[in-house]
């Protein structure tokens, strides 16, 4: 009798426990408790995936001949600032194409005219016509904000930037890399960039290295002094120990700390002066 009574009591307790909800709820596992307010949350990854770009080579005319011009732009629809990039005296090396692609991924429409297609040293008038027609090409694109055009160039392209920025008024700012402000005075290159300082109306960033043997840093400091005396707005970034052409190594875009920092200086300057 006692055994039957104990058995009945056991069955009653089991029934009550089941009714109280201590059974499988149908979930695949136990619920994870909410974190305590005192426990810091794991930080989420920052940044976004690289922007898709559209790349092609188009033909743009100089004074009389058509030149190949490498172009890159963000793939997403919109109106973007645009930049004309003038490569160095060593030609349109692969590193410049990579730089154009990076700038497009960073939100710029970029055109890079291959100005040495027919001559290693064409007249300034030919290069100027090519740059002006590159501007016209950009102004005709649906993805370009024609009020936000910039100019940049390297080595000989740095000289062209110093030379054309005061003359081509569509440009709102420019970045001159290791240029030659006092190169000129010949039949094909009649003007020194420094002689046009009075015509400069937009901001310029000058990037240079102290060990530049082709374009001595002393000329850059002199040029900067003349810009300042004329009350022309400029910024200057000088890298101690860097030689001429430090952005391109063996034809490729350098991945050194200085090169990456200098690239950031350029894009930041354009973001500030074109937007």
TrEMBL record:
<dbReference type="GO" id="GO:0016787">
    <property type="term" value="F:hydrolase activity"/>
</dbReference>
<dbReference type="InterPro" id="IPR002925">
    <property type="entry name" value="Dienelactn_hydro"/>
</dbReference>
<dbReference type="Pfam" id="PF01738">
    <property type="entry name" value="DLH"/>
</dbReference>
<keyword id="KW-0378">Hydrolase</keyword>
<feature type="domain" description="Dienelactone hydrolase">
    <location>
        <begin position="69"/>
        <end position="273"/>
    </location>
</feature>
<protein>
    <submittedName>
        <fullName>Dienelactone hydrolase family protein</fullName>
    </submittedName>
</protein>
<dbReference type="InterPro" id="IPR051049">
    <property type="entry name" value="Dienelactone_hydrolase-like"/>
</dbReference>
<feature type="region of interest" description="Disordered">
    <location>
        <begin position="26"/>
        <end position="51"/>
    </location>
</feature>
<dbReference type="InterPro" id="IPR029058">
    <property type="entry name" value="AB_hydrolase_fold"/>
</dbReference>
């Amino acid at each position: 009798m006692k055994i039957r009574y104990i058995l009945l009591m056991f069955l009653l307790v089991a029934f009550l426990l089941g009714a109280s909800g201590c059974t499988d709820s149908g979930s695949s596992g136990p619920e994870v408790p909410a974190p305590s307010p005192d426990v810091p949350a794991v930080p989420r990854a920052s940044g976004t995936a690289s922007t898709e770009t559209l790349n092609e080579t188009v033909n743009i005319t100089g004074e009389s001949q058509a030149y190949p011009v490498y172009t890159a732009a963000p793939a997403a629809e919109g109106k973007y600032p645009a930049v004309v990039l003038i490569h160095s005296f060593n030609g349109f090396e692969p590193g410049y194409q990579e730089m154009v692609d990076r700038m497009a991924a960073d939100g710029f429409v970029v055109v890079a005219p291959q100005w040495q297609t027919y001559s290693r040293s064409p007249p300034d008038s030919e290069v100027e016509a090519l740059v002006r027609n590159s501007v016209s090409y950009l102004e005709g694109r649906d993805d370009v904000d024609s009020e936000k055009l910039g100019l940049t160039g390297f080595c000989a392209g740095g000289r062209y930037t110093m030379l054309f920025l005061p003359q081509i008024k569509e440009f709102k700012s420019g970045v001159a890399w290791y240029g030659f402000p006092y190169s000129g005075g010949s039949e094909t290159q009649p003007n020194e960039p420094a002689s046009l300082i009075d015509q400069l109306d937009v901001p310029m960033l000058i990037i240079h290295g102290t060990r530049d043997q082709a374009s001595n840093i002393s000329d850059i400091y002199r040029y900067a002094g003349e810009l300042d005396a004329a009350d022309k707005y400029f910024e200057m970034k000088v890298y101690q120990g860097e030689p001429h052409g430090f952005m391109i190594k063996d034809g490729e875009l350098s991945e050194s700390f200085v090169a990456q920092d200098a690239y950031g200086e350029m894009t930041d300057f354009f973001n500030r002066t074109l937007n």
